[in-house]
Amino acid sequence: MALEVLAALVIGGIIFIIFMVHVTGRWVKRDDPDTGTALIEFNRVYPGEAIRSVVNTTDGRAHFYRLHGGKTGFLQEMGHHSVARLIEAGSIHVGPMDDARALKIDFREAGFPGGVYHFESEQDAAEVSLWLCGTFAMAAHEEEPPRT
């Protein structure tokens, strides 16, 4: 009899803890992307890069940055950590999706995941793709031999 009472108390305690975590809001998913924290994190990794514009994905876990000089930056939240990087020409492959508000981006670096990134609007997806194209055009221009 005492074993059943102990088991009931343990199960009741676990249910109470789960209920309290839920009630206190620890499981509430944020609907707004935290652009400020993402800006600070990217600036901490690349302090010399001037950010001109930011586009977030709909889930707020990835941020694309238009940087001074035609460069493109990227910050993605992965669990409790963030990965920030400058996107270099030839380091990614961008493909269209059926949904005009999404881009499929594959990073060619080993160990760095790519994926499908969904944006709030078609304009945001188009803007990010233009930033990426601008990065490639800038790199192609740098490789051209000087004209005489």
TrEMBL record:
<keyword id="KW-0472">Membrane</keyword>
<keyword id="KW-1133">Transmembrane helix</keyword>
<protein>
    <submittedName>
        <fullName>Uncharacterized protein</fullName>
    </submittedName>
</protein>
<feature type="transmembrane region" description="Helical">
    <location>
        <begin position="6"/>
        <end position="23"/>
    </location>
</feature>
<keyword id="KW-0812">Transmembrane</keyword>
